[in-house]
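Re: export button greyed out
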Amino acid sequence: MAAETSTLPTPPDVVRCAYMELVVTDLAASRAFYVDVLGLVVTEENENAIYLRSLEEFIHHNLVLRKGPVAAVAAFAYRVRTPGDVDRAEAYYRALGCRVERRANGFTTGVGDAVRVEDPFGFPFEFFFDTEHVERLTWRYDLHTPGALVRLDHFNQVTPDVPAALDYINKLGFGTTEKIQDEAGTVYAAWVRRKPTVHDTAMTGGDGPRMHHVAFATHEKHNIIAICDKLGALRMSDVIERGPGRHGVSNAFYLYLRDPDGHRVEIYTQDYYTGDPDNPVVVWDVHDNQRRDWWGNPVVPSWYTDASRVLDLDGNPQPLTAREEAKELDVTIGADGFSYTRQGDTEHGFKVGNQL
Amino acid sequence: MAAETSTLPTPPDVVRCAYMELVVTDLAASRAFYVDVLGLVVTEENENAIYLRSLEEFIHHNLVLRKGPVAAVAAFAYRVRTPGDVDRAEAYYRALGCRVERRANGFTTGVGDAVRVEDPFGFPFEFFFDTEHVERLTWRYDLHTPGALVRLDHFNQVTPDVPAALDYINKLGFGTTEKIQDEAGTVYAAWVRRKPTVHDTAMTGGDGPRMHHVAFATHEKHNIIAICDKLGALRMSDVIERGPGRHGVSNAFYLYLRDPDGHRVEIYTQDYYTGDPDNPVVVWDVHDNQRRDWWGNPVVPSWYTDASRVLDLDGNPQPLTAREEAKELDVTIGADGFSYTRQGDTEHGFKVGNQL
Amino acid sequence: MAAETSTLPTPPDVVRCAYMELVVTDLAASRAFYVDVLGLVVTEENENAIYLRSLEEFIHHNLVLRKGPVAAVAAFAYRVRTPGDVDRAEAYYRALGCRVERRANGFTTGVGDAVRVEDPFGFPFEFFFDTEHVERLTWRYDLHTPGALVRLDHFNQVTPDVPAALDYINKLGFGTTEKIQDEAGTVYAAWVRRKPTVHDTAMTGGDGPRMHHVAFATHEKHNIIAICDKLGALRMSDVIERGPGRHGVSNAFYLYLRDPDGHRVEIYTQDYYTGDPDNPVVVWDVHDNQRRDWWGNPVVPSWYTDASRVLDLDGNPQPLTAREEAKELDVTIGADGFSYTRQGDTEHGFKVGNQL
Amino acid sequence: MAAETSTLPTPPDVVRCAYMELVVTDLAASRAFYVDVLGLVVTEENENAIYLRSLEEFIHHNLVLRKGPVAAVAAFAYRVRTPGDVDRAEAYYRALGCRVERRANGFTTGVGDAVRVEDPFGFPFEFFFDTEHVERLTWRYDLHTPGALVRLDHFNQVTPDVPAALDYINKLGFGTTEKIQDEAGTVYAAWVRRKPTVHDTAMTGGDGPRMHHVAFATHEKHNIIAICDKLGALRMSDVIERGPGRHGVSNAFYLYLRDPDGHRVEIYTQDYYTGDPDNPVVVWDVHDNQRRDWWGNPVVPSWYTDASRVLDLDGNPQPLTAREEAKELDVTIGADGFSYTRQGDTEHGFKVGNQL
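Workaround output, generated via the alternate export path:
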């Protein structure tokens, strides 16, 4: 980084994660997945891109599917509080020595003045205030499906050095809510937020920069189950990678799917309020079997290893840096007793992870 | 079998599965599990036995926990329509050449005149009509917990020769509702019912006679999730063996737990009405990945291999006969492409069973 | 009645309520209500009639909408166990001295040999076994809506003399499960069943013969709430007559709607198992404010007074006979203290019925 | 007001509504209601006061029940972002000319430095930062009941002049999210927020200052239904004043109860995210029958007329000022056609409000 923290300008006042721009290789296949199966609402579309939103959204989109040669993430876009915060974002990242691009007419349809950066860890972040308002479909129950997605909840990023990335994002104004670490202090993942939920994004340790997942919220748990049931009916159950289950971290009910390009989508509901300035940070032991799934169900290895590439501002995939510290997959899975349900106690070996 | 089917007397008119008598090795530990954790209601108890019922039950018990040296099942007890059906049960099994014991004062507290038999496949079946009525707690919401168990739903038995066992239980008057088989006609499991749900009991292929599980019903899916959440809070998540999930067979939402002796308990909700005489039998291909879990989530091996021993009328474990036909575990799990989500199509390999 | 009970032939073995034939005055309006709003599935339709089924049904239909000049009920149709039970039904009602019509090719498309009768209380009952099987959509979650109706649950009939009607239907083989009466022994309503739920039909005291409602079941309570939410979104909330709420009687969660002709439809979920021969009959005091709504919410007067006319076998409305005994509406509503939450205790007057 | 707005100091940065101090006349009766029935958690208690919190709270309390001679509200307490915001609150209200009291050791156990004011509309507002942290019981599912209250959601105040009160609270930094008004511009109620939900408090038109209700959130709708079911089981259904139902305003699922002193408590779930600076304000026509209940169910008159007195800083009830503008009750209820489901269309008269 080119600047001392102490000399950094005021960061932009980020309101929330607002949309992700995904590059997909087969637009029709992605449309079938996100619109026909998951029920996201098409705000606008053309032969190159589809602009989607969740049912309770009033800004133009929460997800852009853009046709491209390589499946990747083109932007993690955050909404800021005022037009001036776009200026502040630009100044902030220039001060960090990052590559920065400002476009008065925005990078995507429906969004105005915006800045995109290659952040210090290689992620394409966007900051914008100006956006077209569209109909919030909150009350339009005639359009809701059993698995209605009502809100974009969060992003999740893969990066090699979690403490460093956490320091950066904390300085950007995101507060840490939860962490996974071990007794030696190695941090495996951390959750950070602007809006008062458990996160707007998270830093997951691994080879990066990559995108681990993008998450949409439902109202209730049965909505998530309905998505699984529908995938079964459509003979698409093999897109379910993990879950449904209850997270330890965040306490949310979750499901992980993989889209036609392998991009991971989480469906998520019912984490907790984190808006107080002294909100207690929850720290989980990486060896606690209930941290990732409160019911102790195993995490599939691909969930740890797979993630989507992210693009630089020219649209080329960012090179990867390997994680040097211990990996969560390595320290937790296996018959070697690395993990526990009750510390110091023997386990019932009923879990699939112990038996296969 | 000692008798020709054509000469068999009229079978008893079975109303439903009514209770299971479980032998447990640590009565206090079992009480903690079934009462403190699962919330079954104690109708009566003493130092040797605990009589439990579900919240909507009006007969004395659905589960007897009896202290004994070896964890096993002492009885699968069915309620019959009239006192005369106990006579019919006695005559029927005597005609089958089975060992039969009749007790005018019943085998368990709260149940009167009853007959127990060692059925042709080695299972201890009981038939009774007379029973003490107790308060049905349907309306007592002040006593309901988030995971309220409202009804005994079914038993599940492990037996080597499923078609033979099915023939026997069909003749006893149980109608088949669903089956798992393969293209060669091998039957891996079958579900049979008296009450108009998917089953009162099921025949699961394997070394037997053994008891695969006993199942209690909740009202809704969130009740089952609440049980998982509570097990997590109690740091008992390692008693969750499989699930929660949606069955293909029965379409029910399910969870499998293991009690302190390893007896398997299913929590189950929302199968469908089967009461018409021509109710369509659903036949599943054993290679269909969605048959056991509609979402394609893997079945843990122990779920196929483990089961509880059953006792003869002297209280000794019945000897086991090995299954000679193909086993479901062997023909479905592995990287060898035995199973499919879409017949003839390649799979996404996102499932834990494919990765571990 | 023309015959002594003691000389009556064996009644037909009724399996369950199976379908209702409704005469509607505007077929397109009724289709919009039952198909577009409620999501019943069209098995078949033409310019004069629409054949609808619930999602878990495998027989041809649960509801026939037939175009006609006067909104009314043409048939309460019950499925019987065997073809021979149609003969038994014919003989039984002939012995009762009722008008009877037998049609080998059925009265409605999709149903074969059937008998229709004008029963002793003026209701057009049909009994049939033969019916076309159609796809059971249980597993077709891609077709389920948030308010999915999965099963026909019951009918409800209005008749002046409840004890007399109850005696008749009990002799037909329907068991009583619940009753509302007063301290003087006046019976206001009674619930009777063949399948082991709280009812296949009910007798509600009032001027009759009339049809009070037809009820469809959902899986869970949130499905019923989703129907209300959708009606709000469609600006059709004024078709909600009563509810949603929790019944005292049956313990089910309920909602009452009125279709475009004013026919009342109940949406219903989660009553309890009643299949044992000695299932305890639940008797409610008519003055108990929680009998009709467990939460004490008031019953709208039209719910007591309005009902649909029923037709004779020529298609003419049956004449009405007035109820002579006390009416539930008269003995329960008002500021005169007829009802109670806690017997002998004063009430909090927070309910709308006490304030308007 | 003593000061020109233009000269007002910077208002405190309010984070959220944090707790209400209720004066109750029978502490044991109130404890039974809030603890035994509703399941709020006792953080601390003595013979004069009980300090309660919701299950996901980490500050000392969300509700104080203090024994006193007259049922009333002693404080609407808001948490501020920093200790300095307490200073800002003090200065702000002094500048407004209000009576202000600062206590370094707080007004209630578990809260430190705080300021209480009699605001310009007569409400006792408290602002504090310092508070004792207690265990957040989010993950303690072993303690959750079927109707688990997880969060304090909002307050609701009754005041005669809604636009004036709205102007004041907007200047304090609360953003308006929804309003009810008529075609002439009369404002009947308005909702305002700091945290990004529909409200932290609301201004309801009526004789004031009074407290309309305090609201706690559940996770899901079935939790609210479980509270109703439990009240029925306890024969306390007459404390249900209104609901359950779906609000038009806020889109939340709701229930209104009255505590032993008549204080109104709402149980509330699933409103929507409002955190963007340009969050669209939803304006409802007072004549829209779906504004207060999306299903068009009637609002009981007491819900409009009853409310709790509030205390001045000496503990004496504030005198009431009558509302001079039209009252919502008067312009919406009755057979005179003041309200509509579909503007310009005739109504089905199925609602209890139209019939009693």
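The mean pLDDT of chain C is 95. The button fix ships in the next patch.
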